[in-house]
Amino acid sequence: MDKLLFGTAGIPISAKGFGTEEGIEEIRNLGLGAMELEFVRGVNITKQKAPEVKKAAEKNNIVLTCHAPYYINLNSLEKVKLKASIYRILKSARIADLCGAWSVTFHAAFYQKSTKEEAYKRVKQSIKEITQKLKNESNKIWLRPETTGKESQFGNLDEILRLSQEFDNLMPCVDFAHVHARSIGKYNTYNEFSEILEKIEKKLGKKGLENMHIHLTGIEYGEKGEKHHLNLKESDLKYKELIKALKDFKVKGVLISESPNIEQDSLMVKKIYDKI
Ligand SMILES: [Zn+2]
Q: Are strands 218-222 and 225-230 parallel, antiparallel or unpaired?
């Protein structure tokens, strides 16, 4: 990626219809550059349909990313659940690849009764299996475990960076709202955002900053972290400071707005970014 593209989680509200291709077209009309395929409640694009989505993305010059289903736990001790979790990531990666997507993000696991280290080892084992399969299929999509919003979920920044150091085709999806909510209000100043970006560069090198999949939304949180998403202006997230830090660190990749107002916040942060 040679710059930072702005996009939406799913089809923009202003799109003419509810179809993926109509969404992609609207992204271009809005002057945005990316759209995330939302497979969060299931992979809703078929193998047959995927090439049409790819064509629409190419025609409109839009980068696609993908969010795998929520029902994933790579730390499950139940074999059936673990297998289903691995399958959901694989299926998302396969369909997303057929759509020509660049990156697939997912919430990797819950700690449940495991220690953090036990959970890490199990997640790593499953990801090894997934990356091996995708490699055999010549599927080059980026796998992106996401920084999660609750202490009960696997996926603090250190865990995601550690995984990124271990696999060739895996990089972080950094959800700044989640990092903020998980820490119950920290990571909300220019210096704190810079700290995150410095850490990414230290662990992954310059390519860590030049290959970023970012999520951004306003967020409501409590003692246990994330509660629900808000529009940026209704939240306490200091998004202007974040955007400034992203620009100063010359971050490249894709920034996806997950706000309830979808494209409005994406357009708003793009405007701020372009003005700096
Ligand atoms: Zn997510």
A: antiparallel
Give distance in angstroms: CA of 51 to centre of ligand 1: 25
The pTM (predicted TM-score) of the whole model is 0.97
User: How far is the CA of 182 from the CAs of 20, 36, 131, 206, in angstroms?
Assistant: 32, 23, 28, 26
What is the rounded CA–CA span in Å between residue 105 and residue 113? Answer: 24
Q: What is the distance in A from the centroid of ligand 1 to the CA of 106?
A: 6
Q: Residues 227-241: what's their mean pLDDT?
A: 98
The stretch 187-194 carries a mean pLDDT of 98
Cβ atoms 62, 27 nearer than 8 A: yes
Using CA atoms, how far apart are residues 245 and 252, in angstroms rounded to an integer? 12
Q: How confident is the model at residue 5 (pLDDT cuts 50, 70, 90)?
A: very high
Kindly give the distance from the C-alpha atom of residue 146 to the centroid of ligand 1, in angstroms, as a whole number: 6
Whole-number Å distance between alpha carbons of 115 and 26 = 45
**Which residues are found with C-beta within 5 Å of the ion, ligand 1?**
146
> pLDDT averaged over the chain?
97
